[in-house]
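[agent] plan:
  1. take the single chain provided in the ticket
  2. run structure prediction with default settings
  3. attach structure tokens to the ticket
  4. add a short note for the reviewer (M.T.)
[agent] executing step 1
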Amino acid sequence: MINKYFYTVVVIGSILLSACSAEKTEQKVIEDKTVDDKAIVDDSSSELTIFELSAKEEEVYSNFQKDLNLKHLFELEPISIAKLYVKAEFDKKYDVVYALYTDRAGHVQWSKEEDEKIPESHRGSDEQIVKKFKNIEKGTFLQTSDYEGYIEYDLDEGTNGFPMIFQMTKNVDGIWQVSFMPIQ
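[agent] step 2 finished; step 3 output follows
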């Protein structure tokens, strides 16, 4: 029980820390667009865009939202599932986000009910989501065991910074899912 509260506090704390460290530049969001073509533009006219889903990913995302049945994810590779997770976060579809988390015994860190209690203000802004997952679609998936792996990606192409790690866990049915707190 204490572990669940600890992990909840850690998640909320990390979200708050990332919010505090975000750049303070004034941002303008272009509205009335789908997530595929929504862009965040800062005052320096540089543009950050979120990736596009493939036709197959769009179809799976649409079908998965309807019933949250994991069977829709069966044919997708880990990077595609990570993209669906990011899109659901960006779309603020938190039931879909939670459904994409692993259901593997011993790896679930908080319940759906606990997840529903997390305030939207602690989940990250559109700008934070775009910056945190920039270039994840260009990442490389590395499997580390029969049921664990991670996506390694660079936030800025061509830099020598540390790569980001997005953790994945395969469930007992052989479907890759997002690990709780995938980026640490």
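[agent] step 4 note for reviewer: Residues 2-21 form the longest helix (20 residues).
[agent] ticket updated
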